[in-house]
Amino acid sequence: MKPGLLLRSLFYSAEKSFQRLRFASLPEPEGGWPILLGISFPKSGTHLLDQILLGFSRVAPFARRLHSFYAEYEGETGRKRPPEHALAWLDSLRPGDVASAHLFARPEAVARLTGRRFVPYFIFRDPRDVVVSHVFYVTEMETRHVHHAYYRALSDFDARLMISILGRPDAEVEFPDIAARFAPYLGWLDHPEVMSLRFEDLIHTRAATLARIADHLLKRVPLPLPLSSILANLELSIDPHRSPTFRSGKTGEWKRYFSPEHKRAFKQVAGDLLIRLGYERSHDW
Predict the structure, then answer these.
(1) Side by side, which strands form the sheet with 35-40?
(2) Which range of residues forms the domain containing residue 41?
(3) Parallel, antiparallel, or unpaired for β 69-71 and 98-102?
(4) Cα separation, 231 vs 237, whole angstroms
(5) What percent of the chain has pLDDT over 70?
(6) Angle, alpha carbons 7-12-14 (nearest 5°)
(7) Which DSSP state fits 73?
(8) Does any domain span residue 100?
(9) Mean pLDDT throughout 3-30?
(10) Is residue 2 part of a domain?
């Protein structure tokens, strides 16, 4: 292990030991302390969910920082990681860890996360806002991204947005349209053991959404604390400006950027996805 990684691992272990001592008076739940896992579709509020889950470290012996982050694709090369890598990563997590992932709902992963070891959450966002955010991220924020040079070479924002909607079927690395990119995550919606939440709900109905997040954990871990205290600590943990990819935190921004051509293209490839996720009732938008 590299010296930097070793130091981080030692510091993380020391912090977890401190947390266990800090909350030694809390009775250990049946089955032990679970692992908190935030699953997210890319550009859907990953860091916001991370902050909220880390907020539980204020009221129980959960880690105060993320154990690790896993993504199905390598950011700099765009290569898809083998499924066994995801399973090995899940198996590396330990009780009390808080972790984050862009994780596909493969049967083997679902089987692990719907067991007693995990309390999982899945956050997603209006895919129209996702593609807008994706353009800004690839073009301006992440210069090491595999598609950065290609996006920068395109003529304007409209051209980049069309690529984020339709993908690059001719690219050497896999980059399908927005609906195909979301498809491997849809399975998380079918399992009540995985709490699904929308990014928009954390913006517009935050108090009620935080209560749902807390209740999902409390069903597994009955903390002897007033709900109001738990919710206050979750709220205190939120600071979107600490996110390295935070841009605006707004919802419905797609309306500023979508031309009639973008709307037609999006409806063609992902109109049904919007209905499935509850953002529209029909293709008439």
Answers:
(1) 69-71, 98-102, 35-40, 118-124, 195-198
(2) 30-277
(3) parallel
(4) 10
(5) 96
(6) 95
(7) B
(8) yes
(9) 91
(10) no
How high does pLDDT run on average in the chain? 94
| The one-letter amino acid at 90 | L
Query: What one-character DSSP code corresponds to residue 102?
Result: E
Across the strands, what pairs with 121? 38, 195
Q: Which two tokens stand for residue 52?
A: 């909220």
Tens digits of residue pLDDT in 79-125: 999 999 999 999 999 999 999 999 999 999 999 999 999 999 999 99
Q: How many domains does the chain have?
A: 1
User: Could you tell me the CATH number of the domain that includes residue 225?
Assistant: 3.40.50.300
Distance, C-alpha 54 to centroid of its chain: 13
Q: Is residue 143 predicted with pLDDT exceeding 90?
A: no
Look at the block and give the residue holding tokens 């067991």. Answer: 115
Mean pLDDT calculated for residue range 60-85: 93
Chain-centroid distance of CA 151 in Å reads 24
Give the pLDDT score at 22: 97
Q: Which residue has the tokens 């399973």?
A: 87
In a domain, 285, yes or no: no
Model pTM above 0.90? yes
How far is Cα 187 from Cα 204, in angstroms, rounded to an integer? 25
Is 210 inside any structural domain? yes
Is the CB of residue 36 less than 8 Å from the CB of residue 119? yes
- The token pair that represents 126 in the structure block: 């209006």
**Given pLDDT bands bounded at 50, 70 and 90, which one contains residue 247?**
very low
Which residue in the block uniquely carries the two structure tokens 């993320």? 66
Integer Cα distance of 124 and 200 in angstroms: 9
Element (H, E) at 35: strand 35-40
